[in-house]
Amino acid sequence: MTGRRTFVTRILAPSKQRSLPGRYALWVQGLSMAAFAWAFLGWLNETWLFWWDSPVWFNRYTEYVLILCFGLWRIAAEHNPYTRRRLVVLVACVAVLWGLIPWQFPFFEPYVGYPGRQPEFPSLHTPGTLTFFLVLAAVLLFGRRVICGWNCPCVGIRETVGFPFRHVTPRGRWAWRLRHTKWIFFTLYVGAGVVLLSPLNSWSEAYLGFFGLVVVLPYFATLFLSPLTGNRSYCRYLCPFGATFGLLNKVGFYRIDYDERTCTDCGTCLQVCDMGIPVVELGRRSGKVDVADCMGCGRCVTECPTGSLVFRDVRDVVMPGSTRDVIAPGSTRDRSHLRRWATSDRLQAGAFAAALMVAVAGAAWYSAAVGTPAELATDLGASLCRIH
């Protein structure tokens, strides 16, 4: 296994680098662009073309298959143990929750309001659905990272297929200021939420169609612009869903604490952040990084050579004795703890694998019991009663 990983790393990953962006061969970048095109054509086929009866290798699920394939490469080539574990979780969640379950065992979600169509699990992006509310609560407690860092296909394709374009990520003051453009799309998203929670009519139906194009077309367009704008331009400047979770970053419990006394201003945190966040500048200004843009990937925390950065969330409020007021080696969720957790906590890894298997089995049972053609009740209790 070691020899195989060394070979993969030597051929496809920057030598002896962890989370630092590196330059990849043109054939690797070309392979990524071909995968982007395949994902786009798959979505186009299911939406408009309808070729070959929309097989899994040429429909919206094609994107998740590509994330799985490129994700295996990224997991094998990654040197940072924390990032490697995050990629394992991200790729597995996309493959199982977003791919396997809705493709093989589809079922509709309970919801409130009146969506334009029945929401099929997982309906995270549809306001009023069960997963929408659950994820909002989780983000409020633990930060945007619970979805953007660990369970988002939009991030997944950029973290795997788009990885060779990290080195061209725009950084600096002007690139940071452009982040405000996403609030335009967030406003449109709020409008869509109002429409979804109201009776549907011809005007609202037209608005939902317009909003769908506003989301989908830039989503795929930014994939093809990756050689010029980096792999995370959509997340940084256009994603209305990320902006929604980012607001909860600000008002919730999540943040990254910064210790100016130990910081050597080496710039590593700036180089590894694909969101272009001026970590040191924000840290010196307020002693923390709590901006809406941070998706909690952990690269800055786990690559800081002096351990000057540390994660904080609701656990530090509920169990204040589990962390220290002053950042120091050994503090919960600092560099040393996260790296140690990523390589030693096999019990959690086994529990995660078991949870995915239970999710698949539960989805198979629920799909068979409820049946996808039937109208699902708008509240969860009534939905469960229908099973009996």
What would a concise description of this structure say?
The protein is an all-alpha fold and about 400 residues long. It has helices at about 1-10, 25-50, 60-75, 80-105, 130-140, 145-150, 155-160, 175, 180-195, 200-225, 225-230, 235, 240-250, 270, 280-285, 300-305, 315-320, 335-345, 345-370, 380-385; strands at about 255-260, 290, 310.
Describe it:
This protein has 388 residues and is mostly helical. Helix content is 59%, strand content 3%. It is built from 20 helices and three strands. The protein has a three-stranded antiparallel β-sheet. The protein is globular. The chain starts with a helix and ends with a helix. The N terminus is likely disordered.
Which features does this protein show?
59% helix; 388 residues; globular; 3-stranded antiparallel β-sheet
CA(first)-CA(last) distance: 50 Å
Task: List the secondary-structure elements in sequence, H or E.
Answer: HHHHHHHHHHHHHEHHEHEHHHH
Largest sheet: 3 strands, antiparallel
What is the assembly state of the chains in this entry?
single chain
Percent in strands: under 5%
How much helical structure, as a percent, in the residues? Answer: 55-70%
Mean pLDDT, nearest integer?
A: 85
**Which of globular, elongated, flat, extended, rod-shaped describes the shape?**
globular
Rg = 21 Å
